[in-house]
Amino acid sequence: MLKIYSWNVNGIRAVINKGAFRNFIDKRQPDILCLQETKAKQGQAEIDLPDYEELWNSAERPGYAGTAIFTKIKPLSVKYGLPAENLTDKFGDPLTEGRVLTAEFEKFFLVNVYTPNSKNGLERLNLRAEKWDPEFLKYLKSLNKPVVVCGDFNAAHEEIDIARPKTNHHSAGFTDEERQGIGNLLGAGFIDTFRYLHPNEVRYTWWSHWGHARENNVGWRIDYFFISDSLRDRLKTAEIHENVTGSDHCPVSIELEI
Predict the structure, then answer these.
(1) Within a 10 A sphere around the Cβ of 2, how many other Cβ atoms?
(2) Per-residue model confidence as pLDDT tens digits over 3-15
(3) Is 220 within 8 Å of 163 (Cβ atoms)?
(4) Could you give the CA distance from residue 98 to residue 83 in angstroms, rounded to a whole number?
(5) CATH code at position 65
């Protein structure tokens, strides 16, 4: 059984300094771990994981965004970023922010993504809805093996995925455009693994720092594992690990019989 975890750590150095990262690794023992928002380059964080190969795609801007994969299974190949052009807006170019990291294995591609946030004033919504989401889906569809895609998508898909849907329909992360981006993934044949196995469970993966949101479980489910439909019968578990602290996000995981 292959155990794959995904976690937006909101700064790998901060999570390590809290002791949360090592505790998580020792207890969960993932075969593959995908991280988002590492906010570091390889070598800047004190990581001692000799059983894992480290893959990093860090942002050009120091201390910002970035993705990483730690894997016990040597990948056949690694791809960095998206094969896209001209995604620049007034906030910069998300193609330089280390937001996509792909590892090819024998039977599937693993794509780790940290989707751009639309920002509180929705200043980046157009870039996301009109450029990023279509280019990312186009990339996933171009891969010539089954795909496992995970990470922080910065969007809750349905009302069940957010604690207060009625007051957030015009908020970043729950606009119609962002929700449609998730819908387009599903329409292309990808499966939301957690919702597939837990159709009615109300669970969240991110909580605001404000108003004791985590203590009161006023959260959003914005971290996902999607898999190609051809992997459906190999999916055995899909979990959210709310009790793992150290970040404003918690890890999510799947197990595949592969």
Answers:
(1) 19
(2) 999 999 999 999 9
(3) yes
(4) 13
(5) 3.60.10.10
* Active-site entry in 133, 139, 152, 204: 152
Domain count, the chain: 1
Show the tokens assigned to 241.
């690990």
Model confidence at 122, pLDDT cuts 50, 70, 90, reads very high
Spell out the alpha helix ranges (H) of 77-132: 125-126
Q: Count Cβ atoms within 10 A of the Cβ of residue 165 and give its class: 0-12 exposed, 13-18 middle, 19 or more buried.
A: middle
Burial class (CB in 10 A: 0-12, 13-18, 19+), 187: exposed
Task: Report the distance separating Cα 228 and Cα 236, nearest Å.
Answer: 14
Q: Is 64 a catalytic residue?
A: no
> Residue 175's closest CA among 223, 220, 142, 139?
220
196 is catalytic: no
Q: pLDDT per residue over 25-54, tens digit each?
A: 999 999 999 999 999 999 999 898 999 999
Q: pTM value?
A: 0.97
CA-based torsion, 72, 136, 160, 236: positive or negative? negative
Give the separation between CA 128 and CA 135, rounded to whole angstroms: 10
Q: One of 5, 114, 139, 224 is an active-site residue; which one?
A: 114
Contact 240, 252 (CB under 8 A): yes
Pair 9, 241: CB distance under 8 Å = no
The parent domain of residue 38 ranges over: 2-256
